Amino acid sequence: MRIAGVILAGGQSSRMGGQDKAMLPFGNHRLIDHVYERLARQIDTVAVNSNGDASRLADLRASVIPDDVGGFAGPLAGVLAAMEWAAGEATPFSHVVTVAADTPFFPEDLVDTLRRSIVDAPDHIGVASSGNRLHPVFALWPVFLKADLRRWLSDETNRRVVTWIEGHPHRVAEFPVVATQSGVPLDPFFNINTPQELTTARQQWTAAR
Questions:
Q1: In this predicted model, what pLDDT tens digit does every residue of 79-99 receive, in sequence order?
Q2: Per residue in 92-126, pLDDT tens?
């Protein structure tokens, strides 16, 4: 497999009062910086799917890939953009692994674990799970599915990521819920949607330092 990583940062942040979650302060940097560094430790090539002003991400020195599906089609539009970007590179990638920009604690072995889940079946989707709950935007996608995904998204009623995954061969990679230094369980896929969740994530980050 030749794998590229793509951070999905194209959401509307509606529950964050319209603030761009990727740009929110987190630790000594922005949330997007933290997520980028975490993914870049696992894979050489990282790009960002974003529909905003690309110049605000210039310091990441990563390709910024906008959606090209009309309207707000949700995370699958970002997955499609990632697939098409990966296929169009000078040396095309066979797979893309996607992560969400609002999930700062995703596993340090995410890419390798997803890769191993489909190493003998590279035409399958590998999708992350924790606590018996799927996290469908944390997945390893075969790029050859891009035409199928574009056709599926052409119907505006088709937006659920899980529904599309379940319509294709896939394997689930289970990740453990970990204990923090305070002993409180932390789901590695804890994501930030609200100001309160941002506060909780910052507290968890500080406690782990």
A1: 999 999 999 999 999 999 999
A2: 999 999 999 999 999 999 999 999 999 999 999 99
Average pLDDT over residues 150-167: 93
Alpha carbon distance, N-terminus to C-terminus of the chain: 34
Domain range for 18 is 3-208
Please state the domain count of the chain: 1
195 SS3 class: helix
189 three-state secondary structure: coil
C-beta separation of 205 from 33 below 8 A = no
pLDDT of residue 19 exceeding 80: no
* Cβ partners under 8 Å of residue 166, min gap 6: none
Q: What is the CATH number of the domain that holds 41?
A: 3.90.550.10
**Alpha helices, H only, the chain:** 31-40, 75-88, 110-117, 146-153, 161-166, 195-208
| pTM of the entire predicted model | 0.91
- b/e burial code for range 171-194 (CB count within 10 A of at least 16 → b): eebebeeeeeeeeeebbbbbbbee
Residue 79 tokens, joined? 């997955």
Residue positions counted in the chain: 209
